[in-house]
Amino acid sequence: MPSTRIPPRPEQIEAARHHVDLLTRAYPDACCELDFTSAFELLVATVLSAQSTDRRVNSVTPALFARYPTPAALADADPGEVEEIVKPTGFFRAKTEAIIALSRELTDRFSGTVPSTLDELVTLRGVGRKTANVVLGDAFGVPGITPDTHFMRVSRRLGWTAATKPDDIEAEAGLLFPESEWVAVSHLLIWHGRRCCHARRPACGACPVGPACPSYGEGPTEPAIALKLLREPRG
Asked: 175 and 134 share a domain?
């Protein structure tokens, strides 16, 4: 994280920690919702999750990794066969090209091993800071904020940041919490964004943060209406 950021005020930290306490009670099992058994599987799954849902990605990765279990195997794959497998995730041609290319890079440059540093991960095809932080946090236990669409939206609504760029949001949110909590905080906001704090009609009346949120009232506050807006997990 950049060291030139203005430190948050004590009341900002206190409010953010209160939000996280409330979200932790609501989502005690918050975690990465992509299925994986290795850093390689998580890396590929995260690339496939762009403009898709984790549920859809999880529906195709078992077949993908059964056929191509290693970077070397996927690097030599027939693109047409890979496209057929990953087609349900959308943008399948670009995604096929990306996961084959990054598999070749892993094989050629990293001896088939997924690197465990941000600087190395972002050199791979289709891997930006968001994807890299997912892999680092959930496969290697390296602290990182994951500023995906949900995290960015919820953190702004909670008043943690007024920034709109992912890197700025990552940096400003990171100043509110110890590094050891960054991964857990990322999961909490992503879960909340998927289930309750939607882009168009947040379920304010059913929100675990509720009146503690400065954006409360942006969506319906009537509980009976808000409850109908809650979405099934892993959607």
From this structure: no
User: Is residue 24 domain-shared with residue 50, that is, in the same domain?
Assistant: no
pLDDT in tens, the chain (235 residues): 444 678 999 999 999 999 999 999 999 999 999 999 999 999 999 999 999 999 999 999 999 999 999 999 999 999 999 999 999 999 999 999 999 999 999 999 999 999 999 999 999 998 999 999 999 999 999 999 999 999 999 999 999 999 999 999 999 999 999 999 999 999 999 999 999 999 999 999 999 999 999 999 999 999 999 999 999 754 4
Check 95, 148, 165, 167 and give the catalytic one. 148
Please name which of 153, 186, 152 lies closest in space to residue 167, comparing C-alpha atoms. 152
148 is catalytic: yes
Determine which one of 54, 95, 130, 138 is catalytic.
Answer: 130
Q: How far apart are CA 76 and CA 70, in angstroms?
A: 10
Q: Is 168 a catalytic residue?
A: no
How many domains, in total, are found in the chain? 2
CA 10, 3, 175, 170 dihedral sign is positive
Looking at the structure, tell me whether residues 44 and 103 fall in a common domain: yes
Whether the model pTM is above 0.90: yes
